[in-house]
Specification:
Layout lengths: L17 E4 L8 E7 L11 H12 L4 E6 L5 E6 L1 H8 L4 E6 L1 E4 L4 H6 L18 E6 L33 H4 L4 E6 L2 H7 L17 H10 L3 E6 L2 E6 L7 E6 L1 E2 L2 E2 L1 H14 L3 E4 L12 H11 L3 E5 L17 E7 L3 E2 L1 E6 L4 E5 L12 E5 L20 H4 L3 E5 L5 H10 L4 E5 L17 E4 L1 H13 L4 E6 L3 E2 L27 E4 L3 E4 L18 E4 L2 H18 L5 H10 L22 H4 L6 H4 L4 E2 L4 H10 L4 H7 L23 E5 L11 E11 L4 E9 L5 E5 L2 E4 L5 E10 L7 E9 L4 E10 L1
Parallel strand pairs: 7-11, 7-14, 8-11, 14-15, 15-16, 16-26, 20-21, 21-22, 22-23, 30-37
Antiparallel strand pairs: 1-6, 2-4, 2-5, 3-4, 9-10, 12-13, 17-25, 18-19, 18-24, 20-24, 27-28, 29-31, 31-35, 32-34, 32-36, 33-35, 36-37
C-alpha cells in the first residue's frame, strides 16, 4: 500500500485548535514560556529557581514570573517584551523561549486549516449532506470508535443498496448503524495468491486490525468527536471533512498487500451499493490504464457518476514517481498544515537543535547523558549506522542516547532496537534522501527526529567530541507554524510517465502529521512490540491527503448534487491556491524552492472557494473514451475499460489530447534536431468552460516563468449569459527548442473580478 507514510500503513483525520500568538512586535509585554536545560545550572546557584530569576533579571528589570515549573517543563512563564525574550533565548542554558498561545477548542485542525467550520452556512451539514455516501477501499474499519457515532442521523438513504458482512468478530447488527452503513471484506484474490488468511493474526472480516482504513475513513467522513488526541498531542474536537456523510468500508488490503481482483470486486460492489465518492489510499506501479485494476475500476465508477480520489504515492521526491495518473482519477499529493510537535536536542557543547516527536512517556531528566553514534556501536559489517534489529552492541549503548541514521527499517523500530540494546534515548537523523522533511512518530523511548542539516551537525559533534552528551526536551503541540502549507518531500511527483500530455498530480491536501481514528487492534506505531492502544493516531502520507479530498468532494456533491465527477474535480482544482497568504509561492520541502505543478498540480485544496468556482471544465464518459482514442487505444483495449459500444472511427471524428477538456495543461515540445528548422514549435489546445454561477464576463491572464514561451489566448474574454452556458477558447503555445529534459511552468487564470478559475501549465522538452 503506497498511500501512507508511516512505519506501517496509516490513517488520518484532523484536529483542533485555533492559535493566536499573544506576542507582538512592539515593546508591549507578552507571556513567554522559558525552558531551561536543567542539568546546566551554574555552580553558584543552589536552587534552580534562583538561576531562573537571575537569568530573567539579566535581561529585564521588570519581568513578572507567572509560574515556576519543576516537573513538566523546567523553567518559568514570564511577562517579557519581544526584545527581552530574544535576549533571554541567547543566554547559556536556555533551551527555548516560546510565545504563549491561546487555544480555542474548535474542530479538527485540518478543517480549520482549510477554512471550514461547523457552523459555516455554505456547507449542508444535515439533510442533503447525509444523503452522500463515501466508500473507502482500505484495511477495514474499527467500528467501536466515536468517529462512527450516528447520533443525530436520520434513516439510511433510500438509494443505498449495501450492507455489512456479519462475522464472529464483526456483528453487523451491533457495530453498523446510520453512520457506518456499509462494511464488507474481499479476500479471495489475496488468499488465492498467499494461501488462507491466518486468523490468529488478522481478522477475516471487515474489522481493521491495522489502523490505516480506520484513519482514512474517519478523515474523509468521521463524526464530530470531542476530546480527541494521541496521548495528549493535537487535543481537540476531531471531525472528518464531511461529518454528515455516510461511510461504507470495503476491506481489500491484508497483511500481504492489496490484490487487483479484490479491489475490482470491491469497486464493483460499491457501485452496486450506491456510493457517491470512492476513496482509495493505495496504488502500485505505473502501467497502461487497461492493465491497471484501480484505473479500470475507477473508469467504471466514473461512468456511473462516482468521483474517485486516489493517493499520489509516497515515492517522492524523485521525478515521475506518481501512481494513479488516469485522468478520470483525482490524484492527490500531500502538504503540511500549521501544526507541529517540536522536540529539542540540547548538546553538551551548548548548541541546541529542533526536531519533532510524539513521545508521550515519562519525560527524561533534563541532564546531560552520554551519546554514541550507532555506526560506532554496531556489530554489523555494513549499514551499522541505521540501527537495524540486532546490530547494536549493548556494552557500547547501555545508558546512552544513540544517534541513528534514517533509512531501510521503520523509524519507530529503530527506537525499539536502541531500547533492546539498553539505550535510554534516540536522535533520528535524516540523510540526503529525506533532507529537511520531518515526520513525527509516537516513539516508545525518548526520541527526536531531526533534519539533515541538524543531523550532520550532531553527528559531527558526536564523532569529534571525546565525551559527547545530550538531553532531549519535548515541546508538545504547537499550532500556527509557518510557512504552511508546504509540499511534502515524500509526496510523489510528475511528470506523468503514462500520458505526459496530462498534468499530474491534480492537487495537494493535508497529509503530514494528521490526527484521525485508529484501530483498537494495533498500537500507534503499528509494530508488534507496541502494546499501547489509542482511539486516535497521528500519521503521514498521501494516504492521509487522499481522504481529505474525498471528503471535500462529498461536501461538494451534497451541495451540488447535479454536478458530474469532472465538474467537482474541476471546482477543486481551479480554485486551489499555489501561493501563501503572504503572496509567496508554496514551497517544496525537498528543495526549499517554490513547488512546481509537477509537485502540487493546481495547488492546495481550498474548499470554500470550490463551493463557488464560477466556471468548470466538465467532461462526460464519452469524453474519457475519446481520450483513450487520442492516446491510441485499440478497440479491444477500450473494451477492457468500458462496457459501452464505442468506436473511435464513428463519425470520422479525430481525437487529440490537445482538445481534451482537462482543468490543467501539459504541453510537450520536441527538441529540434541538428540542422533542422528554426526550432520554434507551436501547439494549440482547446478548452470549454461551463458557467455554474451568475452571468458575467471573464478575462484571461497568463503568468509565466517561461521567458521563451509565448502564450496567446483566443478569445481573451468570454461572456456567460446564464447558468449552464458553455464557451470555448483556444490557447496557442509557441516555444523555441530547448535541451531535452527542460521544464518550465505558467498559470492561466480566468476572472470576472470575483472568481478566479486557474489552471497550471507545464512545458516540457523531449
Amino acid at each position: 500500500m503506497d498511500g501512507s507514510f508511516a512505519a506501517r500503513p496509516a490513517f488520518f483525520l484532523f484536529l483542533s485548535f485555533l492559535i493566536l500568538s499573544l506576542a507582538s512586535g512592539s515593546e508591549e509585554k507578552a507571556t513567554y514560556i522559558v525552558r531551561f536545560a536543567r542539568s546546566e545550572i551554574p555552580a553558584e546557584f543552589a536552587e534552580h529557581s534562583h538561576w531562573y530569576d537571575a537569568s530573567l533579571q539579566a535581561v529585564s528589570d521588570s519581568a513578572e514570573v507567572l509560574y515556576t515549573y519543576g516537573n513538566v517543563a523546567h523553567g518559568v512563564s514570564a511577562r517579557l517584551t519581544p526584545d527581552e525574550a530574544a535576549a533571554l533565548g541567547s543566554r547559556p542554558g536556555v533551551v527555548a523561549v516560546l510565545p504563549e498561545a491561546r487555544y480555542e477548542l474548535h474542530t479538527t485542525r485540518t478543517p480549520e486549516f482549510l477554512g471550514l467550520s461547523s457552523d459555516a452556512s455554505l456547507w449542508p451539514e444535515s439533510d442533503s449532506g447525509s444523503e452522500v455516501v463515501v466508500g473507502v477501499l482500505d484495511t477495514g474499519v474499527w467500528p467501536e470508535i466515536r468517529s462512527y457515532d450516528d447520533s443525530g442521523f436520520g434513516p439510511v438513504p433510500e438509494s443505498w443498496k449495501g450492507g455489512c458482512d456479519d462475522t464472529a468478530d464483526f456483528k453487523a447488527a451491533v457495530v453498523c448503524n446510520k453512520k457506518l452503513i456499509g462494511a464488507r471484506f474481499f479476500s479471495k484474490g489475496y488468499e488465492a495468491s498467499n494461501g488462507p488468511i491466518d486468523e490468529s493474526k488478522e481478522s477475516k472480516s471487515p474489522r481493521d486490525g491495522d489502523g490505516h482504513g480506520t484513519h482514512t475513513s474517519s478523515t474523509a467522513a468521521g463524526s464530530f468527536v470531542p476530546d480527541a488526541s494521541l496521548f495528549g498531542f493535537a487535543a481537540g474536537t476531531a471531525r472528518g471533512m464531511a461529518p454528515r456523510a455516510r461511510v461504507a468500508v470495503y476491506k481489500v488490503c491484508w497483511a500481504g498487500g492489496c490484490f487487483t481482483s479484490d479491489i475490482l470486486a470491491a469497486i464493483d460492489r460499491a457501485v452496486e451499493d450506491g456510493v457517491d465518492v470512492l476513496s482509495l489510499s493505495l496504488g502500485g506501479g505505473n502501467s497502461d490504464y487497461y492493465r491497471d485494476g484501480v484505473a479500470v475500476g475507477a473508469f467504471a465508477a466514473m461512468e456511473r457518476g462516482i468521483l474517485v480520489s486516489c493517493s499520489a504515492g509516497n515515492s517522492g521526491p524523485g521525478d515521475a514517481t506518481l501512481s494513479n495518473v488516469a485522468p478520470w482519477i483525482t490524484t492527490v499529493g500531500a502538504g503540511t498544515i500549521d501544526r507541529d510537535f517540536p522536540a529539542y536536542v540540547a548538546l553538551g557543547n551548548g548548541k541546541n537543535y529542533t526536531g519533532v516527536s510524539l513521545y508521550s512517556g515519562k519525560p527524561p531528566a533534563n541532564e546531560l547523558v552520554r551519546m554514541v553514534y550507532a555506526g560506532n556501536a554496531t556489530n554489523a559489517t555494513s549499514k551499522g549506522n541505521l540501527c537495524l534489529p540486532g546490530t547494536l552492541i549493548p556494552e557500547k549503548v547501555a545508558g546512552k542516547i544513540v544517534l541513528c541514521d534514517r533509512g531501510v527499517n521503520a523509524r519507530v523500530q529503530k527506537g525499539f532496537v536502541v531500547k533492546d540494546a539498553g539505550g535510554v534515548g534516540m536522535v533520528l537523523a535524516n540523510t540526503a534522501a529525506n533532507g529537511e522533511e520531518l515526520v513525527a512518530d509516537a516513539h516508545f523511548i525518548p526520541a527526536a527526529a531531526v533534519g539533515q542539516k541538524a543531523g550532520d551537525a550532531i553527528r559531527s559533534y558526536v564523532l569529534s567530541d571525546p565525551s559527547p552528551a545530550a538531553f532531549l526536551v519535548f515541546g508538545g503541540t504547537k499550532v500556527g507554524v509557518q510557512p504552511s502549507p508546504v509540499a511534502a518531500a515524500f509526496s510523489a511527483r510528475g511528470p506523468n510517465a503514462i500520458t505526459p500530455g496530462i498534468l499530474k498530480p491534480d492537487l495537494i491536501a493535508p497529509g503530514v502529521n494528521i490526527l484521525a481514528g485508529w484501530s483498537g487492534g494495533a498500537g500507534p506505531t503499528g509494530l508488534a512490540q507496541d502494546s499501547r492502544r489509542t482511539e486516535f493516531n497521528i500519521i503521514s502520507g498521501t494516504s492521509m491527503s487522499c481522504p481529505h479530498v474525498s471528503g471535500l468532494a462529498a461536501l461538494l456533491k451534497s451541495a451540488r448534487p447535479g454536478w458530474s465527477p469532472a465538474a467537482i474535480k474541476s471546482a477543486l482544482m481551479t480554485t486551489a491556491y499555489d501561493t501563501s497568504k503572504s503572496g509567496a509561492p508554496l514551497l517544496d520541502v525537498a528543495t526549499g524552492n517554490p513547488a512546481t505543478p509537477f509537485v502540487i498540480g493546481s495547488g492546495h485544496a481550498d474548499p470554500v472557494r470550490a463551493m463557488d468556482p464560477g466556471l468548470v471544465y466538465d467532461l462526460t464518459a464519452e469524453d474519457y473514451l475519446g481520450f483513450l482514442c487520442a492516446v491510441g487505444y485499440t478497440p479491444l483495449q477500450i473494451s477492457a475499460m468500458s462496457s459501452r459500444n464505442f468506436s473511435c472511427d464513428a463519425g470520422g471524428k479525430k481525437y487529440s489530447l490537445s482538445d481534451f477538456n482537462y482543468p490543467s495543461f501539459s504541453v510537450p515540445f520536441e527538441t529540434a534536431t541538428v540542422g533542422g528548422a528554426s526550432g520554434v514549435t507551436t501547439v494549440k489546445h482547446t478548452r470549454t468552460l461551463t458557467n455554474v454561477g451568475q452571468p458575467g464576463t471573464y478575462t484571461a491572464t497568463v503568468s509565466t516563468a517561461a521567458d521563451d514561451v509565448k502564450v496567446v489566448v483566443e478569445p481573451a474574454e468570454l461572456s456567460f449569459e446564464r447558468e449552464g452556458d458553455k464557451k470555448t477558447y483556444t490557447v496557442i503555445f509557441s516555444a523555441p527548442s530547448q535541451p531535452s529534459g527542460t521544464a518550465s511552468f505558467a498559470r492561466l487564470t480566468w476572472s470576472d473580478g470575483k472568481h478566479k478559475v486557474a489552471s497550471p501549465i507545464a512545458f516540457t522538452w523531449t
